[in-house]
């Protein structure tokens, strides 16, 4: 195992930080501590929490060398490469400012969403980002996920035609989870969003209310609906285009892609073409074996049963391009017959918190072979 190169501090020892998790957990990676622990180039060197009991428990679980009761203590004592800001939402802005203006700021500041709660706070953070060397990233995990990036490349390629309309569902408050839908829309469609109407919705979480929000994207409208999580949690997005449809279900862990085809009665129907597994891994799965889908690379092919095999017989995620072919039905005139290149991805493991991405950025910066560029405007969610 390689020696850790990047020293990390975690601010806030709550659930998303990892206090209910443990090293080597068999569950999917959902906490900062777990993602850092499983990546050999990062080491959690210090944590901060106002509660002595909580920071001591966190320190014991994750074997963290040092713990502090305040952010100012940590900044005075530590020189860290990365800081993960996992404190409660109302503290994000002020603590981010304190970190960015420290005498020795980190190379990367990864902030849990929402990065702030007011438009003037966002403007100040953007101003600081332009003048400080620290790279600021907001942890909208779907931006780092290969399946979501493939879906974005497909939608922006125009092969499914223009967006007709869409609908999204979220739970747990606008600032807590609604911002995820906003950022996912920006990622998938690559366009700016304009808020047209806002009405209250049932549910929410504490003082963070749910809203139904009408978003205009070009000439199309997408409605985002808040759902009361007392019944159950829902996070879905359905984008309906002229020549196909992209559906994100189960929080984005399943991404279904369908294309228009003409059936034997001359009717335009949707036929499933591709099912991507999101968030947990870069694996692609397929429900079809009739020649409608082809995923391939130099190392292997997707068999008719929908399982990827390489020369050794192991089942690995596909490396290289994804090719989406029209289904074996007579396509409408606008549907092209040639193959669609969605996105070329390297064969690597991805963590929800994207610490491999940070490792590459830090390596490029330290070696001076490549500058690390991560515009805050790309990552920060739009504000109502």
Fold and architecture overview:
The chain has 384 residues and is an alpha/beta fold. The chain has two domains: 6-139 and 353-379, NAD(P)-binding Rossmann-like Domain (Rossmann fold); 143-341, Dihydrodipicolinate Reductase, domain 2, CATH 3.30.360. The chain is 24% helix and 30% strand. The chain is built from nine helices and 20 strands. The strands form four sheets. A nine-stranded mixed beta sheet has the order 8-9-10-7-11-12-13-14-15, covered by helices on one side. It has a six-stranded parallel beta sheet with strand order 3-2-1-4-5-6, sandwiched between helices. The protein has a three-stranded antiparallel beta sheet with strand order 16-19-20, with no helix packed on it. A hairpin with a 5-residue loop joins strand 13 (254-262) and strand 14 (268-277). Helix 4 (92-100) runs parallel beside helix 5 and helix 6 packs across helix 7 (174-189). The longest helix has 16 residues, at 174-189. The model is unreliable at 281-353 and 368-384 (pLDDT under 50).
| CATH architecture verdict of the largest domain | 2-Layer Sandwich
Helix content: 10-25%
What structural class do you assign from the helix and strand content?
A: alpha/beta
Largest sheet: 9 strands, mixed
Domain unit count: 2
Query: How much strand content do the residues show?
Result: 25-35%
Rg: 22 Å
Using the coordinates above, name the CATH class of the largest domain. Answer: Alpha Beta
């Amino acid at each position: 195992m390689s020696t850790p190169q990047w020293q990390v501090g975690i601010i806030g020892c709550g659930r998303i930080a990892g206090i209910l998790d443990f090293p080597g957990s068999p569950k999917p990676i959902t906490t900062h501590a777990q993602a850092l622990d499983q990546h050999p180039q990062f080491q959690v060197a210090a944590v901060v929490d106002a509660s002595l009991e909580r920071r001591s428990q966190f320190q014991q679980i994750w074997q963290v060398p040092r713990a502090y009761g305040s952010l100012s203590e940590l900044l005075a004592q530590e020189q860290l490469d990365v800081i993960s800001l996992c404190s409660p939402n109302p503290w994000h802005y002020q603590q981010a400012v304190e970190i960015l203006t420290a005498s020795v700021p980190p190379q990367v500041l990864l902030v849990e969403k929402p990065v702030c709660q007011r438009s003037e706070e966002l403007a100040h953070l953007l101003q600081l980002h332009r003048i400080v060397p620290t790279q600021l990233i907001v942890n909208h995990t779907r931006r780092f996920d290969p399946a979501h990036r493939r879906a974005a490349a497909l939608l922006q390629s125009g092969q499914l035609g223009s967006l007709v309309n869409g609908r999204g569902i979220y739970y747990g408050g606008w600032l807590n989870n609604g911002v995820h839908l906003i950022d996912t829309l920006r990622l998938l469609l690559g366009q700016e969003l304009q808020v047209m109407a806002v009405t209250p919705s049932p549910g929410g979480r504490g003082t963070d209310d749910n809203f139904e929000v009408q978003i205009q994207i070009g000439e199309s409208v997408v409605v985002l609906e808040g759902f009361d999580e007392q019944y159950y949690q829902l996070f879905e997005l359905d984008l309906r285009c002229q020549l196909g449809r992209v559906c994100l279900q189960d929080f984005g862990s399943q991404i279904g892609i369908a294309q228009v085809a003409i059936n034997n009665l001359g009717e335009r129907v949707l036929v499933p073409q591709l099912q991507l597994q999101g968030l947990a891994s870069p694996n692609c799965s397929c429900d079809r074996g009739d020649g409608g889908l082809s995923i391939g690379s130099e190392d292997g092919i997707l068999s008719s049963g929908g399982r990827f095999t390489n020369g050794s017989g192991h089942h690995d995620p596909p490396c290289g391009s994804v090719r989406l072919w029209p289904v074996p039905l007579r396509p409408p005139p606008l549907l092209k017959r040639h193959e669609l290149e969605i996105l070329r991805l390297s064969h690597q493991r991805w963590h929800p918190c994207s610490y491999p991405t940070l490792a590459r950025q830090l390596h490029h910066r330290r070696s001076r072979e490549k500058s690390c560029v991560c515009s805050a405007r790309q990552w920060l969610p739009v504000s109502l």
